[in-house]
Specification:
- The complex is a heterodimer of chains A (about 200) and B (about 400).
- Chain A is an alpha/beta fold.
- Chain A contains 7 helices and 5 strands, in the order E-H-E-H-E-H-E-H-E-H-H-H.
- Chain A starts with 6 loop residues before the first strand and ends with a helix.
- Chain B has about 400 residues and is an alpha/beta fold.
- Chain B folds into 3 domains: about 200 residues, 3-Layer(aba) Sandwich (D-Maltodextrin-Binding Protein, domain 2); about 120 residues, 3-Layer(aba) Sandwich (D-Maltodextrin-Binding Protein, domain 2); about 50 residues, no CATH class.
- In chain B, the strands form 6 sheets. In chain B, strands 2-1-3-11-4 form a 5-stranded mixed beta sheet, sandwiched between helices. Chain B has a 5-stranded mixed beta sheet with strand order 8-7-9-6-10, with helices on both faces. Chain B has a two-stranded antiparallel ribbon with strand order 5-14.
- The longest helix of chain B is centred in the middle third of the chain and has 18 residues.
- The chains are: A alpha/beta (about 200), B alpha/beta (about 400).
Chain lengths: ~200, ~400
């Protein structure tokens, strides 16, 4: 049997690159080369001689890489953009997930498809993780704002914390807004008007 | 009636101006069109988003639209170009070291004289084992073809006497600053930024290589054009109105201020305004030099997609990809440009509509009236720097005559 299919991963996010390579390894594809996004991309890919290149869609080196692939036509192992018309759907899914794939000419579709499908799932999982992280960060920031708004109300109105929270909540319900938005408004106006008495 | 929505992909370049201004200044709304923008950093990403429906249309380098339709390096996808977003507007910028070596003064160079000096510099560097390197924005870009046309025309073989690599527009000035390349051919404001950073010296405007060279186009997938023909025509009318506004001298400052915003070019307003007003700061700290028609966005039916322009780009693809001339490919390439849609969109508007779809490129020394089915059409001087003309009916003969 021919040697394992070598896959090069180029990603501006090293975390995402690690998530993808873990997934490929779990699937038994362990001839992986992680390209250092800060180093010379083309030289690394050329030295790695991969059968498949996975790269994030928005990677700033893509035009340069495509030029290298175009010139590879003159080499023994020309590399082309993945899609063929029959698999436009798979490629569409890859692009939607934010990943582009390039493969050497003549590699069978049965071997490529699982790799691309897996990369797509991992990219999507990464996006989901990132979204959750962003939401958690936002929630944390919102909690801080609410705490500050409560402190402002407690000080200016001479009330205790449950009463301050009840005030915020009541105003949010009456105006059909989120508590965090009311708190944000209080913190902002306090910053602007706080020392006016 | 709800507006027709178009998501348009673009790269941060001054010649993305027409769709941006159509949106910002109400020309699109007036045609019942709503535009949303997706900003990217490489042409490969802009192309992929267009092919897989992230966008409905794209600000694209013309040769890439043709390469995609021909299936170069990937399966072919039929694309249509119903509107040209502008002619020229690019420049060749040398590192300050190379500029000094070839004796560039504080004005734009002369293509022939500068070419002779560059040939000597290129030979010396090649002999020293460090050939001169130039960055172009994409393999399939007019920048690559214009630079190669000039180099070959002055006796420098682009594939053996120098090296040509790819530097995407937003990174071109950085590559020059880092010494990765000795020169770049890129659109504005990236030449101006290289000069203002003190790392570059503008050698030539591409308009000096070909006075009326086709540049960015509006590219749409052919199936989208068929499915949304009326909406596409409304979009073209909005772009045409934006183009008329863009070339009014009084609008330059406002256009530059809009384009400078972080959502669009995220670049200095002054550098953008110089490009719009055809004033080129050639050397760091120098006074801008006026070079008329540096960018050419509207007059002479500049937005009309001449099939002969597509044919010229195809001829250069054959020349540099060494793929051999094929009449079938030539036809496919020429048919990417869709003058029929342009005419249908602007019928009854008073805009000059050329009667022909193809013309001799580079054959005019002075302005001349041309046949039109509507309005009065005047075509200006459109010479290549070597005065060779391109007859789209004889691509094989043209290729045989090139150096």
């Amino acid at each position: 049997m021919a040697r394992d299919m070598r896959i090069a991963i180029i990603d501006t996010s090293t975390t995402r690159a690690a998530i993808i390579s873990d997934g490929l390894r779990e699937a038994g594809l362990d001839d992986l080369i992680l390209i250092d996004p800060k180093g010379p991309i083309v030289a690394q890919v050329e030295a790695a001689r991969p059968e498949v290149v996975l790269i994030n869609l928005e990677n700033p080196s893509r035009d340069l890489l495509e030029d290298f692939f175009a010139m590879s036509r003159a080499l023994a192992r020309p590399i082309a953009m993945f899609v063929d018309q029959s698999d436009a759907e798979a490629t569409g899914a890859a692009i939607d997930a934010g990943v582009s794939a390039y493969v050497v000419d003549g590699l069978s579709k049965q071997r490529i498809k699982p790799v691309v499908d897996l990369a797509v799932r991992r990219f999507q999982a990464f996006s989901r993780l990132q979204r959750e992280l962003d939401e958690a960060k936002n929630a944390l920031a919102e909690r801080g704002t609410i705490d500050r708004a409560k402190a402002i109300l407690m000080k200016r109105r001479g009330i205790d914390e449950p009463a301050a929270y009840a005030l915020l909540r009541g105003q949010a319900m009456r105006t059909n807004r989120r508590i965090a938005e009311i708190a944000e408004a209080i913190v902002t106006s306090d910053a602007l008007l706080g020392d006016m008495e | 009636m709800s507006a027709e929505r178009f998501r348009i992909g673009f790269l941060p370049l001054v010649d993305a101006a027409l769709p941006i201004l159509a949106h910002e200044l109400g020309f699109a709304a007036r045609e019942g069109v709503e535009i949303e923008f997706i900003r990217d950093m490489t042409w490969a990403t802009v192309r992929d988003r267009l092919l897989y429906g992230h966008t409905d249309a794209a600000h694209l380098i013309a040769p890439l639209a043709i390469a995609t339709a021909l299936g170069r390096d990937r399966p072919a996808v039929p694309l249509a170009v119903p509107f040209v977003l502008g002619l020229n507007g690019n420049a060749v910028t040398f590192s300050t070291a190379l500029a000094a070596e070839v004796g560039l003064g504080d004005g734009l160079g002369d293509p022939a004289a500068l070419g002779a000096a560059l040939r000597e510099a290129a030979a010396a560097r090649k002999a020293a084992g460090r050939p001169l390197r130039f960055g172009v924005v994409h393999r399939y870009s007019s920048h690559n073809y214009m630079l190669r046309y000039w180099l070959a025309g002055v006796g420098i073989q682009p594939d053996s006497d120098v090296e040509i690599t790819v530097t995407s527009p937003p990174f071109a000035a950085d590559a020059l600053a880092a010494g990765e390349v000795d020169g770049i051919c890129v659109g504005e404001p990236w030449n101006a930024i290289a000069v203002d950073r003190g790392v570059g010296h503008i050698a030539l405007a591409t308009a000096q290589i070909w006075r009326r060279g086709v540049e960015k186009v509006l590219a749409v997938r052919s199936d989208v054009i068929e499915a949304r023909r009326d909406a596409v025509e409304a979009l073209l009318r909005a772009l045409h109105a934006a183009a008329a506004h863009f070339v009014e001298p009084a609008s330059a400052a406002e256009s530059a201020a809009i384009l400078a915003r972080p959502a669009y070019l995220d670049a200095p307003q002054d550098a953008i305004e110089r490009a719009i007003t055809d004033r080129i700061r050639v050397v760091p700290g120098g006074a801008p030099v006026a070079y008329p028609d540096f960018m050419f966005q509207y007059r002479e039916a500049a937005n009309f997609p001449w099939r002969s322009q597509a044919a010229w780009l195809y001829s250069q693809m054959v020349r540099w990809d060494k793929i051999g001339f094929s009449p079938a490919d030539a036809a496919t390439a020429a048919e990417v440009f869709r003058p029929d849609i342009y005419r249908a969109a602007l019928a009854g508007s008073g805009a000059p509509l050329p009667g022909a779809s193809s013309k001799l490129e580079g054959g005019l020394d002075a302005p001349i009236g041309a046949g039109s089915t509507q309005g009065r059409l005047l075509l200006g001087a459109d010479r290549f720097f070597d005065r060779r003309a391109f007859d789209p009916e004889d691509i094989a003969g043209y290729l045989a005559s090139l150096p």
